Amino acid sequence: MCTVTINIDEAKMRRIDPELTSKERIGQWLQQRVDELMEDYLSDYPLSPCSYTKEEMMVICDRRMEELISGQATTIPHEEVMRRISEKYGFAV
């Protein structure tokens, strides 16, 4: 966890909710919104493979190779991967 400091226009906060009259209440309200924002973001964007440790990534790679060799998984042609990346991120690769 970390703590950050932000500047809030208290008059605008009261326009959002007239009950937001104290620093503590505003802080609680903002914390709820930030928590919701983070959950929404994480549900849309799962953890990047870069967030795994080296050991975790090796286990994932080994399992994937076993699935490919056994025929339980298939590959996607390179051109298809590049097309999907281009469509998703809006630029040519």
Low-pLDDT sequence parts: none
Indicate the radius of gyration in whole angstroms. Answer: 22 Å
How many beta strands in the DSSP annotation? 0
Structural class: mainly alpha
Helix fraction bin: 55-70%
- What summary fits the major beta sheet? none
The average pLDDT is 88
Shape: elongated
Instruction: Provide a count of the helices.
Output: 4
Strand content: under 5%
Alpha carbon gap, first and last residue = 37 Å
Helix and strand run? HHHH
What report would you give on this structure?
There is one protein chain. The protein is mainly alpha-helical and 93 residues long. 62% of the residues lie in helices and 0% in strands. The protein contains four helices and no strands. The longest helix has 22 residues, at 23-44. It is elongated and about 65 Å long. It starts with 9 loop residues before the first helix and ends with a helix.
In short, what is this structure?
By secondary structure, the chain is mainly α. The protein has helices at residues 10-16, 23-44, 54-70, 78-89.
Question: What is the strand and helix layout of this fold?
Answer:
Blueprint (H helix, E strand, L loop, with lengths): L9 H7 L6 H22 L9 H17 L7 H12 L4
List keywords for this structure.
mainly alpha; 93 residues; single chain
